[in-house]
Automatic annotation (TrEMBL):
Belongs to the GMC oxidoreductase family. The keyword Oxidoreductase applies. GO terms for biological process: glycine betaine biosynthetic process from choline. PROSITE patterns: TAT. SUPFAM superfamilies: FAD/NAD(P)-binding domain. Residues 53-85 form the FAD dependent oxidoreductase domain. GO terms for molecular function: choline dehydrogenase activity; flavin adenine dinucleotide binding. It comes from the Bacteria. The keyword Zinc does not apply. Pfam families: DAO. This is FAD-dependent oxidoreductase.
Amino acid sequence: MHQPENPARRTLLAQTVAGSAALALGSLLGGAPGVASATAETPRKAFDGGRIDVLIVGGGSAGAVLARRLSERGDRRVLLLEAGQAYPAWDYPRISALSLI
């Protein structure tokens, strides 16, 4: 069955392939991705009641990545809200294994 052309799908696919190629090329050239350490000892900034440019609700994998990328620009203030339980880092494999996904 022939599917009609979808320019948005083609654009998304092209961007995904280009992004993946750029990441692969960076790895081959010796570039290392930035790694953020999220431990209990990591100091957190208290919210001072000032302006917020971006509010992200949900600190799952997508929310955390989005917050990290948006906060790379120093003049942008990003607030990430998470109401879920905080699990120790070593406990995630067990939690994921018990998931119903």
